[in-house]
Amino acid sequence: MAEVVEEVIAQIQENLTATVTTDGDSSPTNSTGRTPSTPEGMALAYGTLVVMALLPIFFGSMRSVKHHKEQSTAFAKTGEKPDTMSSKDAMMFPIMASCALFGLYMFFKIFSKENINYLLTGYFFFLGVMALSHLLSPVISSLIPASIPKIPYHLSFVQGPPEGGDKKSKEKKYLIDYRFTTHDVVCFIVALVISVWYLIQKHWIANNLLGLSFAVNGVELLHLNNIATGCILLCGLFVYDIFWVFGTNVMVTVAKSFEAPIKIVFPQDLMTNGLSASNFAVLGLGDIVIPGIFIALLLRFDNSLKRKSKTYFYATFIAYFLGLLATIFVMHVFKHAQPALLYLVPACLGTPLLLAVIKGDLKKLLAYEDHPEEKPKAVKNTNEKATKSKNTAEGEEKSTPPAKKETKGKKEAKKAK
After folding, report:
1. For the region Disordered, what residue ranges are annotated (predicted)?
2. pLDDT tens across 161-213, in order?
C-alpha cells in the first residue's frame, strides 16, 4: 500500500512540473491497436454523447417536479420531512467521493481487476434492474393494451409484535412494504433481460441503457433543498474534478478499469466496425447527475414563481449544453482528458445568478427552499384551535373580576341598610 501511495505522490509531482512539448507531427499515434477514428465518426460519437447527456437532465427534471409534489403531500399528511441534501452533506460529499475514488484506485493496483469487477458488476446488476424498471414503468404501462388487466399486489414483511402481545401494537415494523401491479411485473422482466444482456456481453448499448436509467433516477430523486446547498456541492466537486484529473492519473485509471454502467459511451469507429466497434468516447454519469440535480432545482424554483415561462431552467439547461461543447472542444484540441465540471460548474452557477440579478429575483432565488421549515397543516390547525381556546379562557378570566366587584358592592349595600 505504501508503494501505491508513493506512486500517486510521484504522479502528482510529475503532472504539476511537466511541461507540454509539441513537435511538427500532429498526427495521433495508435499504440493501443484500436481502429483510428475518422472525423465523421468523432463528430457522431461526441454529438450522441451530448444528446445522451441532455435527455436525462431534461426528463429527470420534469419527473422531479412530480416527485416533489408527492413529497410535499406526504409531509402535509404525516409531518415527516423528506430527505434532502443539507449544506453539511454537500461539504462532505467531495471528501467522501475522494476517499471512495482513491480506495478503488488502490484496490485496482493491489488486487486483480477481474475479481473486483465481478463484485461491482453483480452489485450494479441489481441496481440496474430496479432503476430501469422505475424508468420504464410509465412508458410500458402506456403501451400495454387495456385488455390486459392491471391487478394490484402488496408485498409486506413485518417485524413484531412480540408473541402474546396486542396484534394492533405500535411495535410492528414494516421491513418490506412494496405495492406493485402486473404492469410493474412486465417492466421488471424487460429490465431483467437488458441487465442480463449487459452482465453476459458488457455490450455498450446495454451499458448506456443502464447508465441513462441511473442518470434519470438520480436527477429525479436526489433533491437539493436550496440554492446555497447546490453552490456548495458544485464548487466542492469543481475542485475535486480538477485535482483528480489534472493532478493525478487516479481518475483516468479508475474510469478505464471500472467495468460498470457508471458512464455513457459511444464508439468513434461505428461507421467502420458497426456495432462491434471498440474505440469509445466516454462521459461519466457524475458530469450529468451533479449539474442535473441543480438544474432540476431551478425548474422547481421556476414553478414556485408561478410564471408562464421557465426562464431559469431553460437558460441553465442551454448553459450546460454550451459548457459540454466547450469540454469536448478543449479535449479534442489538447488531446487530453478534461474534467467536465471545470466548464460545467461556472456555466451552471453563473447563468442563474446573473439572470436573477438582471430580473431582480436574486433574493427570491437565494431564499427558495424545496421544503421550508414549517409545521404540517394538521399540526397548524391543532395549534390554532389551542390558541383560540386559550384566548377565550383569558377573556373569561378578565371579565370575571368586575362581576365579583359588583357582588361585593351589593353585600356592602345590604349591610348598610
Report:
1. 19-39, 373-417
2. 666 555 555 667 777 777 888 888 888 999 999 999 998 888 899 999 999 99
Question: Active-site residues: which are they?
Answer: 241, 287
- How many residues appear in the chain? 417
Report yes or no on whether pTM surpasses 0.70: yes
Which tens digit of pLDDT belongs to each residue from 220-248? 998 888 899 999 999 999 999 889 888 88
- Cα separation, 198 vs 218, in Å, equals 20
Contact 301, 322 (CB under 8 A): no
